[in-house]
Prior knowledge:
Elements: E1 6-9, H1 15-28, E2 38-43, H2 59-71, E3 76-79, H3 97-103, E4 107-108, E5 115-119, E6 128-132, H4 134-137, E7 140-144, E8 146-150, E9 154-156, H5 172-177, H6 181-195, E10 199-209, E11 217-227, H7 230-240, H8 249-257, H9 292-298, H10 301-309, E12 313-316, H11 326-330, E13 336-339, E14 346-349, H12 359-363, E15 369-372, H13 376-381
Parallel strand pairs: 2-3, 2-7, 3-4, 7-10, 8-10
Antiparallel strand pairs: 1-11, 5-6, 8-9, 10-11, 12-15, 13-14
The chain binds iron/sulfur cluster (2 copies).
One iron/sulfur cluster is lined by residues 316, 321-327, 347, 364, 366, 368-369.
Amino acid sequence: MNTQVAITRCETYEAETVYAALRLAVDAAPGLDVSGKTVLLKPNIVFDSPPEKAIATHPVFLEAAIRLIKERGAARILVGDSPGLQTPNFTAKLSGLGEVTKRMGAEWVDFTREKADIPCPEGKAQKQFSLTAAVREADCVISLPKLKTHQLMYYTGAMKNLFGLIPSVAKSPMHVRFPSRESFAAMIVDLNVAVKPHYALMDAIIGMEGPGPGSGDPRHIGLVLASPNLLAMDLAASEIVGYPPLEIPVSRDALSRGIWLRSPSEIEYPLLRPDTLRIPDFKKIPLKKSGGQLTEFLLPKPFRKFRERLTPRPEIDRSICRLCGDCTRICGSKAMHIAGEGPEKQVRIDYNTCIRCYCCHEICPVKAIEIRKVSFGKALFGRS
Length: 384
Ligand code: SF4
Ligand code: SF4
């Protein structure tokens, strides 16, 4: 497989500058072969939000990608994503992605409209996926991620972005089915095996640091990346923001399968190298220390349970919460509900049921949910 990752500078979202940077990167990392094809572009949305919040792939980046793909002779361009709580006829209005799609002559796809079963016989965690039918309709899928931190998976980029191909709330049960970082990562890698994405273009002009992917802060990075190899791109991008790339569960699992790469040393960088671009003060999600599988196995069950209770958990700031109920709807393990009346009305979390998937934190539109460390006393006595 082609192992080239082209990284180039792009300091602003000025349309011609972004287009020129993308074209340079795509020319340097060959493999974007879309002539005569139906192409599905998958930006990252999370929930519909304005571009300045840096939650979604920027509309100018999407515009440049559509322009480039049109010039390379694509027959038809579909664009879509499915936020965790998608409303009917979702058009990505706030993010500007719906408007750009229309203006550029591409087609916005409602991912909830029709689904298709995509088999994955070689899957480690999942043998079949129910995805938007656009995946079957398209000859090739192109991932358009934004470089961000991710509370559960530490980092989100090209491979994790494909999770949005699973329509709307059908994503939540996946967190219940695959509650650990490792099992969830295996499912994401299976998804990439099933979909076989053709190429990725990453918006790392302004990324997100801190508690991403929905509640962090915009961070200027000033780069765009292009590659036909999604794992290679993710290894490069996570290195730039300061993670040891193999500590990212999705990348570690993907590398172990030997499909995209056998070793990170196989990656070629025709333009800039990630080791020259590291951002030392990028605010990352701290990596959880793992005792290793053998230690896990040898620990008595009550100790393992107690350790799980010490895992950082979501806590709600009532002064910010608008009681919209989005978090209660996204919670796949049914650990959240709205209780009480009048001024006492509030969202409550059952921490014995909570699996620490952090979907609620990701989806809250007003950043009312923080992921906080759990004190020894709270874990011991089960206080909330
Ligand atoms: S915590 Fe956030 S998502 Fe949950 S009800 Fe409050 S405002 Fe809505
Ligand atoms: S309360 Fe939040 S973190 Fe816990 S299971 Fe529900 S969505 Fe996940």
